[in-house]
Each structure stands twice: as C-alpha cells, then as structure tokens.
Fold:
Amino acid sequence: MKPRTHVPHDDGQRRLAVLIDADNAQASVIEGLLAEVAKYGLASVKRIYGDFTTQQQGQWKKVLLKHSINPVQQFAYTSGKNATDSALIIDAMDLMYTGRFDGMCLVSSDSDFTRLAQRLREEGLTVYGFGEHKTPDPFVQACDKFIYTEVLRAEAPEPAAPAVSAKPAQKTAAKEQATTKLPAPAQETPAPAAPSPAKAAPLPLPLDLLRQAIEEASDDEGWAHLGAMGAYLNKIKPNFDPRLYGQKKLSDLLRKHPKHFSVVERETTATGGKVLYVKSLDG
Structure:
C-alpha cells in the first residue's frame, strides 16, 4: 500500500476532518462541539453519516445547513446491521491517505471506531474523540484526546419569574384582616429553581491523578510547569477535562483547591512573559 505523504500548509493552521456518526451523537451539542474543534485546528471537512430518511435523524436536518455539515446518506440495507459505521470508516481512510489532514475528530459513542482511531494514530494523525459518558473505555483510550459531549452543552437559561404586583393583594388582605380580625397569612416561600438538566454535576477531584502528573513533570524542588503537567495528563488519561470537575481551565481547577496545590507565576528570562508552575502540597 502506498505510504501517506503529508502535505504542509502555508498558513500554518492544522487541518482537521470532522466525521459525525449521526446514530450515536446528539444534534444539541453541535455548536459547542465545533467551538471545541476550533481550539485544535481548522475543520476543513465536516461530514455526518446516517439515514436521513428516518424520523430519528430529524434533529440533525435542522442544523446541517446552519453549520455547513455535509450529510452522507447511508441507507440501512439490512435490518439490525449498521452501514453508517462502514461508510464513515471508508471515508476516514480515504481522507487519511490524501495527506492533507493533521488530525481527525470522530464524533460517536460507539466502540466500533476503536480500531479506526488506532489506525489513524499509527499514520501520525492526531485523533480527537467526542462522545457521551457511556462511551466504552477502549474507544476513549484509542484517541489522543477525548472530550465528553456533556460538557459542551449550552447552559439552559433559567425561566424568569413572572412579575406580580403585590400592592393590590396587600391592600385587600389588610382590609379583610381589619374586618374579620383573622391573622395575617404566612408568607409563602418560593420553591427553589430546579437545577438545569443541561450539564451533569461536577465529578470528585482526582487528587491521585493530579499529584501523579505533577510528580512526573516536576523539577528537583517539586515544581511542575503547568503545560508539561497538562501534556502528561492527556497522555495517560485522554478523557481528562477540567470541565468535568467544575472548572474551565486546569489552572482554575488547581487554584480552587489551595489546600492541595500551590500555583505561582514565574517570569521567563527569554521572552519576559509569565508562565504558571504548580506544586503538590501535603494534606
């Protein structure tokens, strides 16, 4: 088989192909997903695979045009067999051998793409996986980076309480009390707003994992460059994400727990800029 020849890009941007399994992904996360992809490179190809003649794929039909996603129609030739996976895998291999891409984003919670992720990495491509928490661990570990789509959902806005004029009611109640000498009614405590179902509750802090990453990236005094620590975390746990623990950035997560970690800024001698260092504390 002819080896893949990578084609460099004049603009220096990393080219990514986004391949979506419509049978195992939710349309509600597409905006957050594409924003996340933009952190890693330019999504020059965006394709989604599924049988769009069925009612189940109606959710996707509404967002394809808005986000310029190319639908690849795949009929279910046989009941119980998923032809969508095969179509996605074939296209992924074709795109890989063009040499035009630096990485691929596989959007699915299906473990059937585990070997595809492994094969893409063998050819030197960076593989970003996107799926729900139910995604089997083999697929998660086969990716360079895995992002749970639950953290990409937009926060549902809290419904505004209707404006109620209390003055007429107060006057009426005072008049009734004066006439009948009844005690004033107890003030009704408003029920607390129900939590938004958009995002899951933060997970417990993974202390052992964070301490291990600091130890592996630290100098003789125990200080670790935050960037080196984050790189190590991604290598040993592709699905690590500070957002799972309630913070947007790794630095915010560490600063949130001063009992366990110390975070300081140091000025670099070369550029004069500032970089973050972290140290694990006892306790």
